[in-house]
Design brief:
Layout: H1 2-6, H2 13-25, E1 30-35, E2 38-42, E3 49-53, E4 59-62, E5 87-90, H3 94-99
Parallel strand pairs: 3-5
Antiparallel strand pairs: 1-2, 3-4
Amino acid sequence: HSEAMSNNIKVSLATVYNTLHQFTDAQLLNEIVIDSGRSYFDTNTEPHYHFYCEEDGMLSDIPAGDVKIANIPNMPSGTELASVDLVFRLRRNRAEQDAA
């Protein structure tokens, strides 16, 4: 939205989010929800996981083959697994912070 506004393109934030959600519904984007106030929209719709840096808000991909999930619990009766969303939340090492 800010990029459009800086280029003098008048568009509401609601229009941007409605469009992003339509793209997500059409499986053109994946929404990665970090918390109730922060989501990222990913153009990589193949199965993969993410690193999220809490300090700078950067989200980066982890190739799906780099993470193995074992011992998946039995699903409740009448349900099936639709997807697995996994975000590794990172912060600087405390020892490095203390040394700085």
